[in-house]
Amino acid sequence: MRFIDTHCDALLKLQMAKRGIQQPKKLLNFENDLELNTNLERLQQGGVQVQFFAIFIHPDVPTNEQWQHALEQIDLFYSEIIGKFPQIKHIKQWDELNDLEENQIGAVLTLEGAEAIGNDLVKLRHLYRLGVLSIGLTWNHANLCADGAEELRGGGLTKLGKSVVEMNNNHMVFTDVSHLTVEGFWDVMKSAKYPFASHSNVRTICDHPRNLYDDQIEALINHNGQIQLALYPPFLVKDAESARVSDLFHHIDHICALGGEKHIGFGSDFDGISYFIEGIEDASKYEFLREELQKHYSEELVRGFIYQNFKNHLPHV
């Protein structure tokens, strides 16, 4: 079986190392650097068939430098990941997922938070041309498109944000709801053709602003959307710094009870987190997760959770 992981922050780690942020300047080796939860060797060991790579701009970056930071991460994606390893194939259109060979890993470029484009939709069109296939309007704070999950006023989408959703629709690009406020989520659901939660969990079980209420989960199910569960302990158990696989299963079971067994997947959040589920500390440990899943769920359900559900809900003309 092959895994699809819809969120990691390896590009940010690569950029921070190259810029010397928090440590001396160096270039991380994507092949096997142990600082990367999602290096090539670990992806191969874990049987990852498709890995999403997020462009994420740290909130400390000044506004006038955000676009440059985004371009730097894209350049690292092309030079240090795609350019150096022929077994990694850049997925620029969804149907290319079906062309992956057994020994290939598909790499999908995404945007986590629209800070980098400001109010310039030309920049957004550039991102589409560069192969970005999923756009999250916010991180946890507010920007010109929407309020993020931890913004105190809890507002929804702006006129600009609604324009971005419409452009995503036209380009068959996911609109990622994972970091939105509740109001922003419902604004997206009014118009998005391809709504998607890249790394969120169940708020009924763990009351965290990054998780989804039951009616939000049901709305995603009804709109042919997907709920990719994060492997981050504070999203699984309130205020936890560690968790067990059984804690993840509580979230899976709850979504299944809501009718979403065919809409579940995984978005690890590796390289953006410092706490882990016991036994799943990096991408190489997906085999352990698969084995644990098979102890509790049917072969068909497990196949769906780890890759088939995602493939069954791809945008199409």
Assign the CATH topology.
Answer: TIM Barrel
Low-confidence stretches: none
CATH class: Alpha Beta
Count of spatially separate domains = 1
CATH-level-2 architecture? Alpha-Beta Barrel
Number of strands: 9
Distance between the termini: 28 Å
SSE succession: EHHEHEEHEHEHEHEHHEHH
Taken as a percent bin, the fraction of beta residues is 5-15%
Percent helix, as a range, is: 25-40%
* Overall pLDDT metric: 97
Alpha plus pi helix count: 11
Radius of gyration: 18 Å
CATH superfamily heading: Metal-dependent hydrolases
Name the structural class: alpha/beta
* Biggest sheet details: 9 strands, parallel
**Backbone shape:** globular
InterPro entries: Metal_Hydrolase, Pept_M19
GO molecular function: metallodipeptidase activity
Protein name: Dipeptidase
